[in-house]
Amino acid sequence: MHRFFVQPEAITGDNVSISGMQARQIARVLRLKPGDRIAVLDDTGWEYEVLIGSSADDTVTGEIVHRERGTAEPAVTILLYQALIKADRFEFVLQKGVELGVTCFWPFISERCVTGMPSESKLERWRAVIREAAEQSGRVVLPALYPPIDFELACKDSPVPGIILWEGEKNRGISTVLKSHAFKETELLRVFVGPEGGFTSAEIELARRRGIVPVGLGKRILRTETAGLVAVSAIMYEKGELG
Amino acid sequence: MHRFFVQPEAITGDNVSISGMQARQIARVLRLKPGDRIAVLDDTGWEYEVLIGSSADDTVTGEIVHRERGTAEPAVTILLYQALIKADRFEFVLQKGVELGVTCFWPFISERCVTGMPSESKLERWRAVIREAAEQSGRVVLPALYPPIDFELACKDSPVPGIILWEGEKNRGISTVLKSHAFKETELLRVFVGPEGGFTSAEIELARRRGIVPVGLGKRILRTETAGLVAVSAIMYEKGELG
User: Fold this and answer.
1) Which residues of A fall within a CB distance of 8 Å from B229?
2) Which CATH code of 3.40.50.10170, 3.20.20.330, 3.30.470.20, 3.40.1280.10 fits the domain covering A77-238?
3) Is the dihedral of CA B149, B154, B156, B157 positive or negative?
4) Is the pLDDT confidence value at B32 over 90?
5) What does the pLDDT read at residue A117?
């Protein structure tokens, strides 16, 4: 069943009214007709099965015939702090991160970033990537994308345990940290991933002073967009989220 | 230092002679000159540091000034059986798989594959993707890409333990299997990943009869190209290869 995150105002009681691009997608692209069913999500954790009553390019209406709490949200909350990297790689991180269960994305700018600030239209596009990945992967809460901030601000003091991926960290691997008491206990975790050129030693030192733990990911050199995904996979595996 | 996998005949004693596209890459694109250093790999597990003596578009020569055994190869051997999927996704699997330490790739064709057999030039391109990823990630042994085979042949009896990723497997998650005795003990592992439309029940049954264990990857629905990468990440994590 096709899934759609809609604005809360699209749902009134048991009635659903979808307009704009999503109506077009349902009526024109997917050619869904009265009597077909879709899944509708309002970002509250509920999933609604909707029987389509009318389907036109500008408006699709329907009725909720079943509702249930979604079960695909992970028990662990991962806040992924990703340096701005080339736009296609950034989209990759968003798409795969959503599939894996990341809760929110904080882009940041650090010394070796070579990509400028994303335009408002780029941010819109990235939100669409997140929404599509969330619809496809079964999420019922839409992961957030925050506006880019400076690395120093991203590292600000926080009670949430954090790790920072660093190829220069040869002694402390991610599994050592994830199996430590502090990380075993927490259900909230910050993960920092650098730009293509990595972090400077000064940035690692800054993070360390703020309590964020530098970790390595083994002997092979991973691209930045791979590193974040591998780290999130490892966390989800350790937390029992991969089954 | 830039790294290059070369043909064995490029090395004679301490002398290295590189021709063709790689010479062009070194001389023209990277503009490396006599006195610069490169790392040369001959797919034997050794890594050679080479001092460039002459650099022209058609031939680059140099002398080995240092040699050491590479340390980036994983202790676990993963044979990744990946269904043929859209070419850009297949390249993604190859690139990320190499970074993560996969030893060889076996493409296969199953019932729901919608992509045809790759042409010889496509296979050549895929081998180049593997070589570049291996050079970039620090590998010293070049992962192999085998010619595509039928799923049934891919599942043939083998003493090597295997898992097959299946979204229909709700009870047995990957961690249960990886923590079992048989998988804890083995240093060789086959991983089967289906096409965009997944495996049929008959294919899962066939695999099961051949001793390949169906496993789930948790509650979220992963795209095929994400699933293989997440499974390999989990295996590498479990085997202590992520540090």
Assistant:
1) 96, 229-230, 233
2) 3.40.1280.10
3) positive
4) yes
5) 93
Residue found under tokens 């789930």: B216
Residues of A in contact with B45 (CB under 8 A): none
pLDDT value of residue B138: 96
pTM above 0.90, yes or no: yes
ipTM, two decimals: 0.93
- Residues of chain B within CATH 2.40.240.20 domain(s) are 3-69
CA distance B108 to B103: 16
**Cα dihedral A72, A75, A81, A82 sign:** negative
CB contact under 8 A, A223 and B138: no
Contact B2, B34 (CB under 8 A): no
Count of other CB atoms within 10 angstroms of residue A155: 24
A85-91 average pLDDT score: 95
Cα–Cα distances in angstroms (integers) from residue B211 to residues A91, B157, B167, B205, in the given order: 38, 8, 18, 10
Pairwise CA distance, residues A189 & A163, whole Å: 8
Q: Are B162 and B191 in contact (CB under 8 A)?
A: yes
Whether residues A226 and B100 touch (CB distance < 8 A) is answered with: yes
Of A216, A221, A243, Cβ closest to residue B138: A221
pLDDT digits (tens, 9 = 90+) for A151-167: 999 999 888 999 999 99
Residue B113 pLDDT exceeds 90: yes
Residue from A172, A236, A237, A238 to probe the interface with B (highest B Cβ count within 10 Å): A237
pLDDT > 90? residue A182: no
- Distance, in Å, from the CA atom of B107 to the CA atom of B202, rounded to the nearest integer, reads 19
Residues of B in contact with A163 (CB under 8 A): none
pLDDT higher than 90, residue A62? yes
Between chains, do B243 and A100 touch, taking CB under 8 Å as contact? no
How many residues in chain B? 243
In which residue ranges of chain A is CATH 3.40.1280.10 found?
77-238
Average pLDDT over residues A37-42: 97
d(CA B145, CA B158): 19
Using one digit for the tens of pLDDT, what is the confidence trace for B154-198?
999 888 999 999 999 999 999 999 999 989 889 999 999 999 999
A3-69 topology per CATH: Ribosomal Protein L25; Chain P (2.40.240)
d(CA B221, CA A157): 34
What is the pLDDT of chain B when averaged over all its residues?
Answer: 95
Nearest-CA distance A13 → chain B (Å): 28
